[in-house]
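Subject: NAD(P)H-dependent flavin oxidoreductase YrpB, nitropropane dioxygenase family structure
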Amino acid sequence: MQTELSRRLGAEHAIFGFTPFPAVAAALSRAGGFGVLGAVRYGAADELARDLDLLEAHADGRPYGLDVVMPARKVEGASEDEIEAMIPEEHRHYVREILAAYDVPELPESERSGWRITGWMESVARSQLDVAFQHPIGLLASALGPPPPDVVERAHRGGVPVAALAGSPRHARHHQEAGIDIVVAQGYEAGGHTGEIASMVLTPEVVRAVDPLPVLCAGGIGTGEQLAAALALGAQGAWLGSVWLTTTEADLGSRALTRKLLAAGPGDTVRSRALTGKPARLLRTAWTDAWETAEGRPDPLPMPLQGLLVADATSRIQRHEVEPLLGTPVGQIVGSMNSERSVQAVVDDLTRGFDRALARLNALAR
């Protein structure tokens, strides 16, 4: 299951996997795919360095990459405390009301710092890049469009190709003009930040828009048959994220959340600004309902303010496994994620399904 791009990047299979877990990224690379570690949850550069060291040690010499977030909207010269001061009291009060309605306990004193989405801030992303370029990464991906020109140039000087996610052909052409090497066409059904165009429509349009740049298809892919469809649409591989969340190597930190994902259907997600301030597909919960459908709710704040606003609340919900509020970014493919499997087993299923799809198409062609 190789393409020109997967061969160029040293992967046996054209399966590119985004994940926040270094053990998952390493296992995917070992299985012949291309593991990409998400950096946004790392506030401290030394923590990222530690996990990149772990990834490298367990990837068995196979290629891997890093995904950073460098949003176009930024607050110049502001510290995290100064940015937090921009959050209206009305929003803080609303978060307290939600937590009180579900009797969410405070965090223990030793955990009060909470999960902070500082990775949305460019200053943090740049410190992550300093760490990344000290490791033999085979790909740098940017989740919110192309990184700044100096970052693209720095990657290219080190021989590292740069990928960027796009939700429309217009965005994809902008990426091409910015010197991006690979465009990830991410459809509406994907987990995390998405546009409004479904993968079946988006992928061939992006392929045409940026030809001859290689395109990866993201969104709604969790089987080998769907991967074959992506290649049939002109993509040179698939970018998968959600399917790894219920693998045995993933560390969600909550058995209750794993159970919710395994029980969810394809209609149990919602595109919401509740987590980061930008539209992202999440597991539908009482938390997302509170921000999207409840009467009297305030509008979510722009990035990075919303992420900082909800950081402590997210940590409390996860730490105490408050099931009505407990959720995660995940795509509509969650309906097919109904058992815990190893990363290797997922890759094996993908390759078998791919072979079945090709056999059916070949039979039709004959």
